[in-house]
Amino acid sequence: MKMRNITTGLAGAVLTMTVFASRAAAYELVLPSFDYRTGPYAPSGIPYANGFADVLTLFNERDGGIGGVPITLVPCETAYNTKQGVECYESVKNTPPSKALVFNPLSTGITYQLIPKATVDGFTVHSMGYGRTSAVDGKIFPWIFNFPATYWDGAAVFVQYIGEQEGGMDNLKGKKIALVYHNSAYGKEPIRTLEILAERYGFQLQLLPVDHPGQEQKATWLQVRRERPDWVLMWGWGVMNQVALKEAASIRFPMDHFIGVWWSGNDSDVVPAGMDADGYLAGAINAPGGDFPLHDDIRKYVYEAGKGSGEAEAIGEVNYNRGLLSGVFAAEAIRNAMEIHGTKEVTPEMVRDGYESIDISAEEWVEMGLPDFAVPVKITCEDHGGPRKVALQQWDAKEQKWNLVSKFYDTIADVVDPLIEEDAMAYAKENNITPRTCN
Amino acid sequence: MFYRESGQFKTSYPADQAIFPIAQDRWGIIAVLVVAYGVVPFLIDDYWSNAVFLPFLCYAMAALGLNILVGYCGQISLGTGGFMAVGAYATYKIMTTFPNADFILVVLAAGLITAAVGVLFGLPSLRIKGFYLAVATLAAQFFLVWMFNKFGWFYNYNATGQITAPPASVFGILVTGAHTHPAVTYLFCLSFVALFALLAKNLVRNRAGRSWMAIRDMDIAAEIIGVRPLTTKLSAFAVSSFYVGMAGSLYFAVWLGSAEPTEAFGIDQSFLVLFMIIIGGLGSILGSFLGAAFMVLMPILLKNVMVGSLGMAAVTAKHVEILLMGVLIIFFLIVEPHGLARIWQHLKEKLRLWPFPY
Fold it and tell me: 3-state DSSP call for residue A197?
């Protein structure tokens, strides 16, 4: 009898809930967030997920959403695992009412999985500074965006920086540059570009793969010690970064000759190595630090209201800022979509158009409360790669903060662009895609 | 009551030796197949196909293969991930070299290539046993994954080392690539798994299977009664790898669409399949399916219940899921160390006598 009462009660509750839910069915903007707060990649994934969630909460709390339409964040835990990413994609893509407006997979592996699927299903993927480099070509990848920079640009910029430090690109001849990389599609992305650059500038490239999850690097750094490369580049992620920093410190590798890609430069990557990490360099596609006006808004509207997704002290970490940046881009694209199509009820197709009309000038960055946070971005139908500029940031272990130490370099277009063209064409041929026309 | 066999008389040897001698079992399996073929394809969508049925079917195929080797022949293998990789890379190379090949032939060829590789790595089993063999197969796992990372020929020298399945079709219907219909990929995998499960069931009931079991139970005694260890062990490796290779082929080309060696075919893959057959039941065809269902579907079920129905945060749900999976595995192994298949068997015995157990 008791059991039956409970069942009836439950059924009643479910019924009332559905009634209420259907009554309150106003339009909402569904934004999935592919998080990884578990597993060996959590140190990198948590700040990013927090930044993304916080900035969207801020838009909801401060502005009542985007154009007055509230945002619903749908988190899905992927653990940086491709299979779980596919499950997440399938489970959230049709979330009512708007369907998933844009996917930020935060994993090159998952991005590779989603490129064909999302293209067929008609969903936008913004792999911001990761994923498939040739997605820059909007004619062949209409649904995929990877601005503001790609790994190939990163590789080109790092070589330019090294050349500058060595006193000219001619001095690269005979130098040894090692690449310590996560042995996956992500880590292998820069290899081809580096090989071509090695040929052009006459430096010697050494490839040192590190297997998932990246905790075991003794052999790798022993090899670095033996071969004594002049510079070490790193494409690392998750615990791999922390371990690499510690191992590099233990063989006394000079930190100012050790450059990580922008995913290997979070605060949590360098702090465990303590003072030894002082001087370590990393790529940057956004400015570090938590003192921007938008951060103050986040503290005020989100954290003081108890709606923050992390610790208030972690605001302004590099990966936090990057999550924030991708949230800002998503909001901008949705705003554009509302403008272009003249409706508040945007769909994934409209948001794709919104992404293609993103045009953020330096002044607009200031208006958003992010002065000099990133370079101006302009996306078009053909060009999904945007500015493709990368700067370098350096870790100051005494002050416990990152500082930008260079200008934003341009990519080496005459090396990278033909590679992109070639790769995009190969993809189009493999998959029988006719490039669309842009006007 | 449900399993009352009164009135079911066997009048011939074939009837007595049928796979399902009890009529209720026969009807049960027919009902399952009717639902799988006649109902599911009409209800299936992308989510059910890509997140539920395809992973289940691919892993069931791999578990079948591994069960033949470990459960029936007693040779412990930790190389499943590596052998799946062989199947996947063979598929990729065949698909890119012969773009118009029928995909059924591609899967079978990938299975055969894996069988050959499996025999090669099965050679040490003639000298070493038990945990030592496990270590030898572990070497196969690491070697194969390393090889697919190292040599560009296997991934056609592309920039990222990822292999991506180009569109391929069976009788003019697309089964791989992004343009496939969820029902088609489901039916394709289902047919492969159903057919080869039937084959496996018959294989373990005939001479080959009996000699595998003889080797498993006591190899010296088996040798004395005339079972040749060389052919028996190697045939187990060959058949097992054939299944695992086909599983890798379906897993890569039909389900995932693209894969990178370290993640998709790593050591955790080997352990996952091994856990499936241990939890499902060593030396049981049904156990392979139950184990695959448990390890693949349980996390998804838990996730959907916790996030979808109870409204838990995604990360909390993940932590609870990891915890619950561990607890459930221990629970089932304490309740029945011989796996889920044995639980079903006990249940069946009880049902046959019910309501008058003795």
Answer: helix
Q: Closest by alpha carbon to A269, among A383, A181, A397, A150?
A: A397
CB contacts of B262 in chain A (<8 Å) are 183-184, 211-212
Per residue in A394-407, pLDDT (tens digit) is 999 999 999 999 99
CB contact under 8 A, B315 and A83: no
Distance from CA of B118 to the nearest CA of A (A): 24
Judging contacts by C-beta atoms under 8 Å, the chain A residues touching residue B259 are: 82
CB distance B62 to B246 below 8 Å:
no
Q: Decide if A365 contacts A340 (C-beta within 8 A).
A: no
Overall average pLDDT of the B32-45 stretch: 95
Contact A77 B46 (CB under 8 A): no
On whether any CB of chain B is under 8 Å from the CB of A120, the answer is yes
* A379 and A395 fall within a common domain: no
Range of the domain at A90: 29-150+289-387+419-430
Would A12 be classed as within a structural domain? no
Query: Among candidates A413, A315, A434, A338, which has minimal Cα distance to A57?
Result: A315
Q: Where are the alpha helices (DSSP H) in chain B?
A: 13-16, 23-34, 40-43, 46-47, 54-66, 80-97, 103-122, 130-150, 182-205, 207-217, 219-224, 229-249, 261-264, 267-280, 285-303, 314-335, 340-353
Contacts of B179 in chain A (CB under 8 A): 120
**B295 vs B60: CA distance, rounded Å:** 10
Q: What pLDDT score does A61 carry?
A: 95
Q: Are B51 and B215 in contact (CB under 8 A)?
A: no
The helix or strand, by DSSP H or E, that contains position A213, with its residue range, turns out to be: none
pLDDT band for position A17 (50/70/90)? very low
CATH T-level fold of B22-353: ABC transporter involved in vitamin B12 uptake, BtuC (1.10.3470)
Do A61 and A114 belong to one domain?
A: yes
Do A247 and A358 belong to one domain? Answer: no
The verdict on B238 touching A (C-beta cutoff 8 Å) is no
- The helix/strand count (H/E) of chain A reads as 15, 15
Q: Are residues A86 and A180 in the same domain?
A: no
Closest by CA position to B274, among listed B91, B116, B141: B141
**CB neighbour list of residue A349: distance below 8 Å, 6 or more residues apart:** A122
Of A214-228, B63-77, B199-213, B312-326, the least confident: B312-326
With a CB-CB cutoff of 8 Å, which residues 242-281 of chain B face chain A? 256-260, 262-264, 266
> Is residue A19 in some structural domain?
no
Specify the number of domains making up chain A: 2
Compare CB distances from B51 to A75, A91, A113 and report the shortest one's residue: A91
DSSP B296-307: HHHHHHHHIIII
Distance from CA of A425 to the nearest CA of B (A): 13
Predicted confidence band of residue A225 (pLDDT cuts 50, 70, 90): very high
- What Rg do the C-alpha atoms of chain B give, in angstroms? 21
Q: Which H helix or E strand runs over A242?
A: helix A239-250
Query: Could you tell me if residue A35 is inside a domain?
Result: yes
- Do residue B257 and residue A117 have CB atoms under 8 angstroms apart? yes
Residue B298: CB partners within 8 Å, gap ≥ 6?
A: B325, B328
Is residue A21 situated within a structural domain? no
A105 touches chain B (CB under 8 A): no
The CATH number assigned to the domain holding A137 equals 3.40.50.2300
Q: How near does any CA of chain B get to the CA of A44, in Å?
A: 15
Residue B222: count of CB within 10 angstroms of its CB = 20
- One domain, residues A239 and A306: no
B154 DSSP assignment: G
Partner residue opposite A91 with nearest CB, options B47, B259, B266 = B47
Q: What single DSSP character describes residue A389?
A: E
